[in-house]
């Protein structure tokens, strides 16, 4: 092999080494100057993510998230109290307190969607909404008549299977929670899932 070819190969190899070195430097996380200290962007991102996982009032990590499509946050423990706000699925919350409440079987929560039909309209009430029991036909019957007051359509009634409603008589666990926006209220424990890591 001629010396010219050897020099070309050597130059090509050196060029390759330089290219790899600068490529590595380019892909490496850049250092960011914060308050006179040098920290990596990965640390900044981790810190920001951790702040997203902490309650702004107490500094504690959020410990639950909404595991259903939505969750009504109420002024006190129990479905007979007014709704403060409605959270969406995966919203983070911090548990502040808990309370056990006997269910009000005259105002149960729906387990499934309920279709109400009137002469002029139909309306689907989603699961996890409170309705009023108008008539439990009999212990042997699988059906029950319910009522729901719609803000625009007025009072709606439907005859539904009993398993559409949460008619269990066991005590229900409620959590007092604080949302990421700082609102506080009570939510049924069954609507929340444990947050393992934020």
Explain this structure to me?
The chain is an alpha+beta fold and 198 residues long. It has 2 domains: 3-52; 64-194, no CATH class. Helix content is 19%, strand content 39%. It contains 2 helices and 14 strands. The protein has a 5-stranded antiparallel sheet, with no helix packed on it. Strands 9-10-11 form a 3-stranded antiparallel sheet, with no helix packed on it. The termini are far apart. The model is unreliable at 29-46 (pLDDT under 50).
Kindly report the oligomeric state of this protein.
single chain
Class computed from helices, strands and strand pairing: alpha+beta
- Order of strands, widest sheet: 13-12-6-3-14
Per DSSP, the total helix count is 2
The number of domains is: 2
- Helical amount: 10-25%
Based on CA atoms alone, the radius of gyration comes out at 29 Å
Largest sheet: 5 strands, antiparallel
Average pLDDT, rounded to a whole number, is: 83
First and last CA, distance: 62 Å
Order of helices and strands: HEEHEEEEEEEEEEEE
Question: What global shape is seen?
Answer: elongated
Q: How many strand units?
A: 14
Q: Which parts are unreliable, with pLDDT below 50 for 5 consecutive residues or more?
A: 29-46
Proportion of beta-strand residues: 35-45%
How do you describe this structure in short?
The protein has 198 residues and is α+β, with helices and mostly antiparallel strands.
């Amino acid at each position: 092999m001629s010396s010219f070819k050897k020099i070309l190969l050597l130059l090509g190899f050196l060029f390759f080494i330089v290219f790899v070195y600068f490529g590595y430097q380019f892909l490496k996380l850049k250092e960011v100057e914060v308050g006179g200290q040098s920290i990596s962007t990965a640390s900044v991102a981790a810190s920001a993510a951790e702040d997203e996982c902490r309650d702004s009032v107490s500094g504690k990590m959020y410990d639950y998230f909404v595991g259903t499509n939505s969750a009504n946050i109420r002024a006190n423990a129990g479905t007979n109290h007014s709704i403060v706000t409605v959270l969406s699925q995966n919203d983070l919350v911090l548990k502040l307190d808990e309370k056990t409440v006997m269910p009000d079987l005259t105002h149960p929560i729906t387990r499934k969607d309920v279709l109400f039909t009137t002469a002029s309209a139909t309306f689907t009430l989603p699961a996890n909404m409170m309705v009023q029991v108008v008539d439990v036909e009999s212990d042997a019957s699988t059906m029950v008549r319910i009522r729901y007051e719609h803000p625009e359509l007025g009072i709606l009634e439907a005859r539904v299977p009993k398993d559409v409603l949460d008619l269990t008589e066991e005590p229900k666990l409620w959590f007092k929670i604080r949302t990421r926006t700082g609102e506080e209220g009570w939510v049924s424990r069954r609507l929340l899932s444990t947050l393992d890591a934020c």
